[in-house]
Specification:
Peroxisomal Thiolase, Chain A, domain 1, globular, mainly alpha
């Protein structure tokens, strides 16, 4: 759950983390899977950190190939990535792969 520090204080909840930076990055559509590399670098630059300054990395990429490429380009320490588990997809969700028999050619 995310909320402002003021709201956490109002509810007497501890502040467990702070967002120090964020970035939006666009890349050539042929290279879309590597945008997180550039967004990560931009965030690190904004706060004056190196990736080695980050204790834990939570990487949620949709596909394993993308996660591997991003990790290789960032040269992160795999022992600090998704230490509490993570998730990837093997492809489109099975529920979306359905071919209804409508009786109409091409449908």
């Amino acid at each position: 759950m995310m909320m402002s520090e003021a709201k956490a204080q109002e509810l007497d909840l501890p502040v467990l983390a702070r967002i120090r930076a964020f970035a939006s990055v666009g890349v050539d559509p042929a290279l879309m899977g590597i945008a997180p590399v550039y967004a990560t670098r931009r965030c690190l630059e904004r706060v004056g950190w190196q990736l080695a300054d980050v204790d834990l990395i939570e990487a949620n990429e949709a596909f394993a190939a993308q996660a591997l490429s991003v990790g290789k380009m960032l040269e992160w320490d795999e022992r600090r990535v998704n230490v509490n588990g993570g998730a990837i997809a093997l492809g489109p969700s099975i529920g979306r792969i359905r071919l209804p028999d409508s009786g109409v050619a091409g449908a």
